[in-house]
Amino acid sequence: MKNETMMQYFEWYLPNDGFWWKRCAAKAENLRDLGITSVWLPPAYKGTSQEDVGYGVYDLYDLGEFDQKGTVCTKYGTKDEYLEAIRAFHDCGIKVFADIVLDHRMGGDETEEVTAVEDSPENRNEQVGGEQKVRVWSKFLFPGRNGQYSDFIWDHTCFSGTDWDENTREEGLIYRFVGKRWKPDTDPEKGNFDYLMGMNVDVENPQVKEELRKWLSWYISTTGIDGLRLDAVKHISFSFYKELLAQIRGGDGGSVPAVGEYWSADLGRLEYYLESVDNEMSLFDVALHYNFFNASTSGGNYSMRQIFDNTLVQARPDHAVTFVDNHDTETGQSLQSFVEQWFKPLAYAMILLRNTGVPCVFYSDYYGNPVRKMPMVPNLGKLIKLRAGYAYGEQADYLDDDHIIGWVRRGDDEHENSGLAVLLSDAAGGTKRMEMGKAFAGEEFYDALGNCPEPVQIDDEGWGEFRTEGGNVSVWARKSVLEDMVVNE
User: Which of the two ends of the chain, N or C, has the fewest CB atoms closer than 10 A to its terminal CB?
Assistant: First the structure.
């Protein structure tokens, strides 16, 4: 069975030209040949404008089909082009994960006057103002769609609060509507982190819950997507997704997998969330991302033997989606924590060539990001191909040094020439003696990344003295593997 590898196939600074879905379709074969088994695509529905990346959700039913918010297409293209991109991926055996954003709505069509109280932005459990009338953009009429697919109209009863009063136009305030509450089963940051942005969807409203269930069933059946990437789950009632996923999987959704974005480096919170949703989804391993970030910014003073400590992939490997960076961690974004460039080959080796977690490769790391003047990560394509073809079999770890760490994968019978030795260092280069196994006795291993030119001889007992350069990674494999390292982008 082939190793799973996901790619986040977008980033924040893509051109706003409406051609993204066409570009996706054109690259499907390249991604298949590389070894990508699934792609996470950006939100496909209409946002506040064509410039919207997809998280300023206006109309979930408009996939680039209706003239709304000054445009028919989204930033990425039209509905037909989106569906064609999904078909292109499917034709290449690549699964498609759709970005699901249910926390908030933005770009309302009309205002309503609502009675609200002001809560502290830093402690949402603390009310700091009495009842007052506010004018909020809470009426969503979707005139361009005119009731097609759903005639549900969103008004202030569908939301629990917002951060904008059109009367005063003051920034930095949070208004909770009278008769509503922040959901208690959300992340405890800021006292209660139910509110994130825009008009906060009230998932306790029975009509809202039913409309979201109907929409998700419609979306899955309309698009044929294979999985869900759930945005901002720490800000939504934990019980909501537990119930919604059970309903969807009991209907047309089948066994559709889901991965949630719970942005916290606290392993305890990640594990508590998984328990709260009955392990019905996986989570991105934010804790591991921050270990990578801290190691990359520590100037060689990070203890690499602890790189997997307190991470989801260590504690709950079957529910961990590992990653190095994403669109939110990019420089200038809300969760800025971009892993430094020199460390990225090491980090990618640690998520791609080990036997736990499902790795997710970031688009900008693979292709580079000219807008942010970030180059592609060296040898990332080779690391993906090494995972797809050769990172199989029993794993033995050598995480026994503060700087030079490694592991071996001893291969299996199902994958020809499988078996690798990985060695990396965040400081000076050096060697480590690691056991590949007697099945490899007498063979020569070569660095498939080309960083160390001299081969390593495996001795009669199956051991080899493997090398790595300073601040780099080497992946040692049979010589025949090197011929498979051509990457067609």
Answer: N
